[in-house]
Amino acid sequence: MLLVFFCAILATAIYLCVHVAASPRLPWPAKAALCLLILAASQMHAIQRGLFGSLSGPDMPAWLLKMQAALFCALILLGLMTLAWDAVRLVRWLARRGLSPSKAMHGGPASPGRRRFLQGSAASAAFWTGAPAASLALGASGTISGTAQPRVRETLLAVPGLDPALEGLCIVHLADLHIGPLTSKAWVRQICRDASACRPDLVCITGDLSDGACSFQAAGGGTRREAALELAALQARLGVFACTGNHEYYSGYADWMAVYREAGIRLLHGEAMALDAGRAPLVLAGLDDPAAARILAIPPKPLAEVLAKTPDLPKQAFAVVMDHRPGRAFDNAMAGASLQLSGHTHGGQCLGMARIVARANRGLVAGWYRAQGMPLYVTAGAGLWPGFPVRLGVPAEIAVIRLARAAGGALEADGKAL
């Protein structure tokens, strides 16, 4: 999948360079400079890996990475705009060509053709002025939005037959923090303040907590280890728990696990446990990401095995499952999960990308779903991978889920039946 993405970006850069080279308005030095800029923007990830030590979380200044990201996004947008522009021009050319024989028979004057040429030249000039400017503006805006502080999004889940003792249970769901070159200690600290202000009973972090090595720099000074330790400020009555995401395995796995323990976060590695929620039974499980098998040769345990091999779990308990990727929701529901919390998709990140993201995640991108009768919440995430830290129309979030008893016996979320 990544190989296809990188090839598509390189093809887009070459396509734009061909347009630049064919432009009659630019001198050759300007053409060469623009082509070099386009190719450099397209090789953002190769530069990060080759010069700054990591693809998942390079050790580089935040300002430089933001500039890279804005140019990379602008490149993609300009490529799409140019493709659409060329398609329109092709359709118009074919239409004119189809009408030309009849016009030739009537021997019409040459002036309409001249007018079309002048109009086409003006439209072309307007496009090649406006499209790059719009692409750069959207790239910069998307990068600013992609690195902004996440908002709190509260949602109510009404569950048929919910134990009355669990009525009002508050779960703060965080995912995809991606603590790295674009996040600062202050950014993490504010997330903890906003989350704790909701007075959660339980905090669940569903993977991709950080990127790069612990010793790499964070935004605003200090190391990523220091930024991650700010998570110690998270407070919840039943505790703060997490499962691994795919990015946990890309760099410094053992070091990061030690950092999370130091911050007071309990990682559940294919584990389940009973929580003391008062008079009502509550089970929490965490599943490791499948990347563990590929990178560390640790095969992830399915939920059915986890529950079967965990002694003394209360029967008929409400079971919350943390699983970074949403795609296993149907299997987890069959295994007895009552609610699944997932991330990984970043909500699609940009308007129009949801369909692409859905293809890789069994149609599950953002918000509430129902899998085999089980409610599933896929959060848009609090942060983003530094390799594409752009959001357009899909803001970051701290998801706050409150449980309620469904009066009508139907599973509902935010007043809508699931």
Would you write up a description of this structure?
- By secondary structure, this protein is of the alpha/beta class.
- It has two domains: 2-145, no CATH class; 149-417, Purple Acid Phosphatase, chain A, domain 2.
- Helix content is 43%, strand content 17%.
- The protein is built from twelve helices and 14 strands.
- The protein has helices at residues 2-22, 28-42, 44-52, 62-106, 111-146, 185-196, 224-229, 253-262, 291-296, 303-308, 329-335, 354-359, and strands spanning 151-159, 170-174, 202-206, 240-243, 266-267, 271-276, 281-287, 318-323, 339-342, 367-371, 374-378, 397-405, 412-413, 416-417.
- The protein has an eight-stranded mixed β-sheet with strand order 5-4-3-2-12-1-13-14, covered by helices on one side.
Annotate the secondary structure layout.
Layout: H1 2-22, H2 28-42, H3 44-52, H4 62-106, H5 111-146, E1 151-159, E2 170-174, H6 185-196, E3 202-206, H7 224-229, E4 240-243, H8 253-262, E5 266-267, E6 271-276, E7 281-287, H9 291-296, H10 303-308, E8 318-323, H11 329-335, E9 339-342, H12 354-359, E10 367-371, E11 374-378, E12 397-405, E13 412-413, E14 416-417
Short description:
The chain is an alpha/beta fold. It contains twelve helices and 14 strands. It folds into two domains: 2-145, no CATH class; 149-417, Purple Acid Phosphatase, chain A, domain 2 (4-Layer Sandwich).
Poorly predicted runs are 100-110
CATH class of the largest domain: Alpha Beta
SS class: alpha/beta
Strand ordering within the main sheet: 5-4-3-2-12-1-13-14
CATH architecture of the largest domain, by name, is 4-Layer Sandwich
Gross morphology is globular
The sequence of SSEs as H and E is: HHHHHEEHEHEHEEEHHEHEHEEEEE
Helix count, DSSP H or I runs of 4 or more residues: 12
Estimate the mean pLDDT confidence: 91
Strand content: 15-25%
Radius of gyration: 26 Å
Summarize the amount of helix as a percent range: 40-55%
